[in-house]
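Researcher: I'd like a candidate sequence for this fold, 121 residues long. If you have to choose between options at a position, lean toward the conservative one.
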């Protein structure tokens, strides 16, 4: 959270500084008493966006590392919970292991032929 606050505050400070420079240049060049809000705002956004790519590279990398660690930890917790749920679901479906069925014993053949197999006299 600390890295997020630092990075966001740096972005805002960079925008405010860019806006102040743009307005200062506008006032110096035109000598006007009033300042248009829209054009200096857009120019300051562009300047601060480009400036943040170079000036805030280190802070952005630290912030991204924190986000990555948090995402990996959340992913690990999710996988652990999913594995636990699967285990619980498997044990609920089959509470005790069933023994393998034994084959039924076959009757021993007798020496007497079956009635339909008796020789005719």
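Model: Candidate sequence:
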């Amino acid at each position: 959270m600390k890295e997020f606050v630092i990075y966001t505050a740096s972005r805002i400070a960079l925008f405010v500084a860019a806006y102040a420079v743009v307005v200062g240049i506008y006032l110096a060049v035109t000598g006007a008493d009033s300042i248009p809000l829209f054009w200096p705002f857009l120019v300051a956004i562009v300047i601060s966006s480009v400036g943040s790519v170079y000036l805030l590279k280190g802070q952005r990398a630290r912030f991204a590392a924190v986000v990555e660690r948090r995402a990996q930890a959340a992913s690990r917790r999710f996988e652990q919970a999913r594995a636990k749920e699967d285990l619980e679901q498997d044990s609920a479906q089959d509470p005790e292991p069933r023994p393998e069925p034994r084959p039924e014993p076959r009757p021993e053949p007798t020496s007497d032929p079956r009635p339909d197999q008796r020789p005719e006299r």
